[in-house]
Design a protein that fits this description.
- The structure is a single chain.
- By secondary structure, the protein is an alpha/beta fold.
- It has a domain of about 210 residues: NAD(P)-binding Rossmann-like Domain (Rossmann fold, 3-Layer(aba) Sandwich), CATH 3.40.50.720.
- About 40% of the residues lie in helices and about 15% in strands.
- It has a six-stranded parallel beta sheet with strand order 2-1-3-4-5-10, sandwiched between helices. Strands 6-9 form a two-stranded parallel ribbon.
- α1 crosses α6, α2 runs parallel beside α3 and α3 runs parallel beside α4.
- Pathway: Carbohydrate biosynthesis; dTDP-L-rhamnose biosynthesis.
- Pfam families: RmlD_sub_bind (PF04321).
Length: about 325
């Protein structure tokens, strides 16, 4: 493959999808699909879209991500997270295309003391985790050329995510109770997109031979780890200008004190050693990646603020 390929991106309006589009802009022919143009719960529509586009690479950034709601919408979660990746993998194999798919730390039960490796036994605690694991298994069953990237705690300057929720609550409240006994690696959509772009570049230039040893499952998260409470505190400490003069207290609590419909793994820290060894790709430390997102949020906020210049003029008689 001597030239940049045609890339079909699902979930193009989501956090990861938007970052993928931005990262690949100008270096590939990208065909974005959102939920209005491609319903991932419809296998026939998936097959028709892939065959019409005839992509060299499929990047599946689409997913059902409402973790708690999945407990009551099991069929829809499994249709999008479990069945759709298998259909994409079958179509990729039929066309000799490469499938890149994003999975999650929630395929593990969180009981391990150290970072999780790719070969550790999976045991999801929630419908969401089980649906994502089903998607992984469907891809492996279909075979062909594929890369599964498991990631964790994904966020971006836009969308629905922990960072934006904390900033909103921080402006509204004097104190927040945040879980301090669940651990993971906050990972930005931008870092995922950069790593994906680097690996795709290596495949296109034949630096990596994805037909054999490089195909498979990899963990892809920002470096380091923290708790949800530590993450919240870092957000407030690094972006006081986004809190409108407030600095709420962040009180650590146990997960048992904040029950949710879906159970979360206690330890979601993933080892990136295989990714680094195989592709030479290193994602930024989570703190540095957070700074980048907070700066983007601050910039967007400044751009959207109305000018108050006229309000501060002296009154003229």
């Amino acid at each position: 493959m001597s030239e940049w390929p045609r890339i079909l991106v699902t979930g193009a309006d989501g956090q990861v999808g938007r970052a993928i589009l931005a990262e690949f802009a100008g270096s590939a022919e990208v065909i974005p699909c959102n939920r209005n143009t491609l319903d991932l719960s419809n296998p026939d529509q998936i097959r028709a879209t892939v065959r019409e586009v005839a992509p060299d690479i499929i990047i599946n950034a689409g997913a059902y991500t409402a973790v708690d709601r999945a407990e009551s919408e099991r069929d829809l979660a499994f249709a999008i997270n479990g069945n759709a990746p298998g259909v994409l993998a079958e179509e990729a194999q039929r066309a000799s295309s490469l499938l890149i798919h994003y999975s999650t730390d929630y395929v593990f039960n969180g009981s391990k003391k150290g970072p999780w490796g790719e070969e550790d036994a999976t045991d999801p605690l929630s419908v969401y985790g089980a649906s994502k694991l089903a998607g992984e298994e469907a891809i492996r069953k279909a075979g062909g050329r594929y890369l599964i990237f498991r990631t964790s705690w994904v966020y971006a300057p836009e969308g629905k995510n922990f960072v934006l929720t904390m900033l909103r609550l921080g402006r509204e409240r004097d104190s927040l109770n945040v879980v301090d006994d669940q651990f993971g690696a906050p990972t930005t959509a931008a870092e995922l997109a950069r790593a994906t772009h680097a690996i795709a570049t290596g495949i296109v230039t034949e630096k990596f031979t994805i037909a054999n040893a490089c195909a498979g499952t990899y963990h892809m998260t920002c470096a380091g780890s923290t708790s949800w409470c530590g993450f919240a505190r870092a957000i407030f400490e690094r972006a006081p200008q986004l809190l409108d003069g407030k600095m709420p207290a962040v009180n650590p609590i146990a997960a048992s004190e904040y029950p949710t419909p879906a159970k979360r793994p206690q330890n979601s820290v993933l080892s990136n050693e295989k990714l680094q060894r195989t592709f030479g790709v290193h994602l930024a430390p989570w703190e540095a990646a957070l700074d980048e997102v907070l700066a983007a949020i601050a910039s967007k906020r400044r751009d959207n603020e109305p000018s108050h210049t006229l309000q501060h003029r002296p009154v003229e008689n």
